[in-house]
């Protein structure tokens, strides 16, 4: 036993810092979070293990959505940023360094580049966590952090390109790697020296920065290299044939493998950066574009695909980011660029590639469940979520799986089973207890159990009034629904309408089986004179969606038009009903083709933009923006 521990200790000593940090992340991914933290705490004196621990803290925060975990992750991020010299990036420190020099110990080229990337990573992760607050001040702070991260990624990428070009210029052979998807280049040198992909890596002109933000060192040397190397002074990187590297200058003190690993690191950050920005609402995107950068989902996917093919510690995290985008992000935002079927196919391919290494991981099983759910294989999805729940070592992961189990039952209209799952979540989590109380209430009402509804209604009111954050989308949504919940009712159809609205707004009607869709359509086709709907026009909107998903497009168009007509002279509340009806009708007309249909679709989309302040406006505005771009193409 002692000999084995000595061998493990000797092996750890021989491991490089980045290899050691990568092993810590692998432990966390394979259901060993305590071992991962203990492993990383053995080396607290280097940045690689610090950023690995930071990534783990951020993932815990995102999975749990608990404010305590988010605040803890922010504290860890701040400490790493200070370690990178982030506190010395102000103008005073820069001026002081010019006149009096820097007291910082000199760093190797590899360490300086790694520090810059880690600094950018901390700023990007801080921005993502800040966006989770979903309020205006959070968005503004997040934008400022994104701007800082952009500058670091841009500068570091440009410098790495120049260094790699000089290293490759001394060699006559090149090792050709396998071409991944989405236009990633055939070899690392092609990627770095310029081609169709690298030409769009940064789509905006670079901002001139006189000094490194992370170290304070002068960039005059880099600018001199840029003058001799036109490929570095332009965002549109030229092809390798036109790149002129100063072969007479001494080679930098960094090896080719390290440069390739660092390119994987910068690609992870930039890919996550691109995906994060592309999912923001248009009003925030306009502000970001004014500041000089924008998001592109395809570019983000390409960068993450490249990163996951490297040896950097961020490679498994790039895989997780891609799986989240494909199985969750595309459904939340109902991406028009990628169908649910295509997203499920791409996610399944990634999971197949990582099955040997992470096949028993709770996260791996969770994403397999999401893929099955996207394919409407609810029995298979439930099996994966339950397996992930059993092997999960973290309570946050178990709650996440339980959440998916509840939604699977709701999708199949198994209200009692859904009630049980949501009830457990309401008691076990601190995040949005009011949300799970509402889900329990509508599921109980839909199943015809009315006795506890007055208690649940009062409990929901209490949590909404005592909530510390009252300006999130979810909170505003729940406040509106609470006003529509009757104190006494014996009509199960009324409550089923509210469950149908949940399925619609969470983009899960598409997953329902044809039999379930037909059942929902029958409910929503009932005469409104005999059935009181919670929100005027809701039944017609859901009916149109069911017809659309069943391929009955003429009936769907009629239902959407009736919904729009009903709301023309109706209430000015719950404007998400006419807004969604306008957009879904427009998308149907666009699919039919023809000039007349496209003109009406454009008019409908413009009208939808006039609605303001409704539920999930940010999410729908992303779809409106994408559809208008498609019409303009």
Strand content: under 5%
Oligomer: single chain
Number of helices: 30
The 3D shape can be described as globular
Helix content: 55-70%
- How many extended strands? 0
Provide the gyration radius in Å: 27 Å
Overall pLDDT level: 80
Q: How is the biggest beta sheet arranged? A: none
Distance between the termini: 68 Å
The H-and-E topology, N to C, reads as HHHHHHHHHHHHHHHHHHHHHHHHHHHHHH
Helix-strand category: mainly alpha
Question: Poorly predicted ranges (pLDDT <50, ≥5 residues)?
Answer: 1-7, 87-102, 172-248
Write a structural description.
The protein is mainly alpha-helical. It is 68% helix and 0% strand. It has 30 helices and no strands. It has helices at residues 2-14, 17-29, 33-41, 47-64, 67-83, 91-100, 109-131, 136-169, 188-193, 220-228, 256-278, 282-290, 297-308, 315-332, 340-353, 355-358, 362-374, 378-391, 395-411, 415-428, 433-446, 453-466, 473-484, 492-505, 514-524, 538-549, 553-568, 576-592, 595-608, 617-632. The longest helix has 34 residues, at 136-169. The N and C termini lie far apart (68 Å).
Task: Provide a concise account of the structure shown.
By secondary structure, the protein is mainly α.
